[in-house]
């Protein structure tokens, strides 16, 4: 059986995984990912018991319980590059024997639930609306570095999207949320296609002093696109990488967001802390 070298599977002197500073026993089967490190205690304040906490760089982790349900909440920081680190390292904790540096034959399946903020695209989703991602279109580059084969429905979405938008500035990919987890956590929410970008400003069509190649007309056309009756609902920076990497690794993942910016009418939430708290409580009630 081949072993993973110290340069590929990087461990700290205490045996924890390199960036996240976690050991396998610190990880629950259900993991809530948040972008902002300060959001981790805003989730774990609702735990009945906090069992473990640690931090390295922007990766803050709290593991505890609500009733009998063991949960880990972990901050990823902003962007798909961090999701690459988080997904690979959490999967290593679950599915690699760190002492022998070998991949376990029996795999452990994790549930990932992103609890994040987002920009809404649709006029009928005002700021404060909770939205979950049924599908995702990746305009970040991450999955192009993997041998990623989308399942049939995501391939069809990609064909429809690239057919309607043949001149995008970057190659795109598509993916899907885990349908069972999506229904159990966000069954009655607004749902739609989330586009993930590798930046907040020009990639999402914002221009302060620098012009974006995503024009206001293109934003309007994104809002008008639909695939089998499902519209593009929101823009953010982690969902595509999370859903697609989790699926490739045999895990289940969904992305839950609260709309803070409405790109149709140019508004931003007057109470982002309250909106995020409502998102957190709504998700936790379903677990
Ligand atoms: O609120 P979080 O979870 O960080 O998510 C969104 O907010 C950040 C940008 O402000 C990006 O990470 C985006 O995906
Ligand atoms: O517009 C927004 C708001 C939050 N997060 C994003 O990535 N975009």
TrEMBL record:
InterPro entries: Nucleoside_phosphorylase_d (IPR000845), Nucleoside_phosphorylase_sf (IPR035994). GO terms for molecular function: purine-nucleoside phosphorylase activity; uridine phosphorylase activity. Residues 31-278 form the Nucleoside phosphorylase domain. One of its GO terms (cellular component) is cytosol. CDD domains: UP_TbUP-like. GO terms for biological process: purine nucleoside catabolic process. Gene3D superfamilies: Nucleoside phosphorylase domain. Its EC number is 2.4.2.3. It catalyses: uridine + phosphate = alpha-D-ribose 1-phosphate + uracil. This is Uridine phosphorylase.
